[in-house]
């Protein structure tokens, strides 16, 4: 006679099916409502419930509206929350979503929102609580006839952590309306554009590993505290998360960046911005480093503003491979024996012949480490006077690096209180042949620089257009008149106190005579000048103005 089964085994032997758990008796419709309610606690809750059993998994996967409410907080790591957000976007299919953030750190706002920003047209509402309370109802925000809503511009203010709340309160106080002073605001003055700008205040730029690629086209980054300096490596790493940028502006501080040995062991990446058309650098000592790490094959406009300083700072690129200083220096940027020396008529010779200190080895702590130099890093052989020799060196080398790497179709160059060495101007004029507009303010450029824009007789080469008139030289060779920047149409000189009036008149008059004469004959080799401004250049007086006006007519502006 067999012994009775233990109580633990009786359900397995019982032919009658076991009684189902109460949750298994619930209809699918009620389960969906429960799961939707659970989503109010955290976005990951429905995902977790879907792992309990096969039935619940099927319910979660077949019910996209469970994921319409996305609630995120700081309970998990940013990397995990980012993946949760992406999962909610995918599971909700194409339904509208409500984004609800509860965070105490302003630094977490952009990383947590980044997965949703490319799907802005699906947003129904946005709620923010924690460090600030904000609510946006997007259903009354969009105007359907004006296309899909999208984020056009991102403004980032980077401030000291100790000042972040007070600065944010000031910005909130000056805002005019809930939307304008919050995270989102209209990109234009009219709400009917369906384009938004996003404003964030952070204590540091987020690392790209915490960001879903950001698809906006305009980016403004500003250092908002005198006590905080954005490290150029952090800036460049952040830019890797912005692959569709068309406009980028960086407004920094004139403070020297400190590099630790560890920083130099991990150089920033080359940032490829295939759509960037306009770049602005304002008030930064890191111009060379930034420009040396950008790849911008479509760059049309470059604006360099307030880069001049009259004090020493390290001008080299510290991320280059370093070598002993006794090693041979690289050749400069030409195949001639004296590539960086620009010759000009003797009456244009600068009266200044300063023996400037070497720009390469500044007396700062980390310059004691040997480092690599680049083509053109040697001191300017012309020895032209400059009030800002160190920033001139850094700016010139940054431009060389950017143009050499990207070969952009640059059309506009504005240098507002930004300057270069004579050798850098010469290199620029030889390598940016498509430049049409050149504006420079407060430059110490010498007469030899403006003389580079005048016509020069050079031996005819195969690449010269056949239409160019030929002059037979006494040496038996054939010569043509060549212009640097052959497509230059607009030249603006403001506060260039070292330029003599005679040099300005001579160079521009001769250039206008050549380009106008060829154009009248139907030879479209050089673009005629269209707009010339000479404003507050102290050595350009009324007599020079009359003489130049005779050559240019109404194309000349004196204010």
UniProtKB/TrEMBL annotation:
PROSITE patterns: FBOX (PS50181)
Residue span(s) of domain F-box: 20-70
Region (Disordered): 1-20
InterPro entries according to UniProt: F-box-like_dom_sf, F-box_dom, LRR_dom_sf
Pfam family, one: F-box-like
SUPFAM superfamilies, alphabetized: F-box domain, RNI-like
Protein name per the record: F-box domain-containing protein
Source organism of the structure: Dentipellis fragilis
């Amino acid at each position: 006679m067999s012994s009775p089964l233990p109580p633990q085994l009786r359900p397995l032997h019982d032919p009658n099916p076991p009684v189902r758990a109460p949750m298994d008796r619930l209809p699918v419709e009620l389960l969906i409502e429960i799961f939707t309610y659970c989503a109010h606690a955290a976005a990951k809750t429905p995902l977790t419930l879907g792992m309990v059993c096969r039935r619940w998994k099927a319910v979660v996967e077949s019910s996209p509206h469970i994921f319409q409410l996305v609630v995120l907080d700081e309970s998990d790591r940013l990397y995990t929350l980012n993946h949760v957000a992406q999962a909610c976007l995918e599971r909700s299919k194409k339904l509208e979503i409500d984004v609800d953030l509860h965070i105490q750190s302003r630094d977490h706002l952009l990383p947590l929102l980044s997965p949703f920003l490319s799907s802005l047209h699906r947003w129904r509402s946005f709620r923010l609580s924690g460090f600030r309370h904000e609510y946006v109802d997007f259903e009354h925000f969009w105007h359907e006839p004006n296309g899909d809503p999208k984020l056009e511009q991102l403004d980032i203010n980077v401030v000291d952590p100790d000042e972040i709340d007070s600065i944010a309160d000031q910005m909130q106080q000056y805002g005019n309306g809930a939307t304008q002073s919050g995270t989102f605001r209209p990109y234009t003055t009219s709400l009917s554009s369906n384009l938004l700008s996003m404003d964030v205040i952070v204590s540091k730029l987020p690392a790209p590993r915490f960001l879903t690629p950001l698809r906006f086209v305009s980016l403004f980054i500003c250092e908002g505290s005198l006590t905080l300096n954005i490290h150029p490596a952090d800036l460049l790493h952040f830019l890797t998360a912005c692959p569709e940028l068309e406009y980028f502006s960086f407004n920094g501080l004139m403070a020297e960046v400190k590099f630790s040995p560890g920083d130099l062991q991990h150089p920033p990446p080359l940032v490829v911005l295939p759509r960037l058309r306009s770049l602005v650098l304002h008030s930064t000592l890191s111009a060379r480093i930034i420009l040396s790490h950008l790849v911008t094959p479509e760059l049309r406009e470059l604006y360099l503003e307030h880069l001049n300083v009259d004090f020493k700072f390290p001008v080299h690129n510290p991320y280059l491979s370093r070598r002993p200083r006794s090693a041979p220096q690289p050749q400069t940027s030409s195949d001639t024996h004296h590539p960086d020396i620009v010759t000009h008529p003797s009456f244009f010779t600068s009266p200044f012949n300063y023996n400037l200190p070497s720009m390469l080895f500044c007396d700062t702590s980390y310059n004691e480490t040997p480092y690599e130099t680049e083509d053109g890093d040697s001191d300017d052989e012309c020895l032209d006077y400059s009030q800002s020799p160190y920033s001139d060196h850094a700016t010139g080398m940054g431009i060389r690096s950017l143009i050499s790497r990207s070969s952009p179709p640059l059309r506009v160059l504005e240098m507002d209180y930004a300057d270069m060495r004579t050798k850098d101007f010469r290199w620029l004029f030889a390598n940016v042949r498509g430049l049409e507009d050149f504006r420079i303010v407060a430059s110490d450029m010498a007469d030899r620089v403006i003389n580079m824009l005048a016509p020069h007789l050079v031996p005819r080469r195969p690449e010269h257009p056949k239409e160019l008139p030929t002059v037979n030289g006494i040496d038996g060779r054939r010569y043509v008149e060549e212009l640097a920047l052959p497509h230059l149409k607009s030249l603006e000189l403001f506060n260039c106190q070292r330029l003599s009036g005679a040099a300005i008149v001579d160079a521009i008059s001769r250039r206008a005579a050549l380009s106008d004469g060829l154009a009248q004959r139907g030879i479209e080799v050089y673009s005629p000048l269209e707009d010339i401004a000479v404003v507050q250049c102290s050595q350009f007086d009324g007599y020079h103005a009359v003489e130049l006006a005779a050559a240019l007519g109404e194309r000349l502006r004196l204010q």
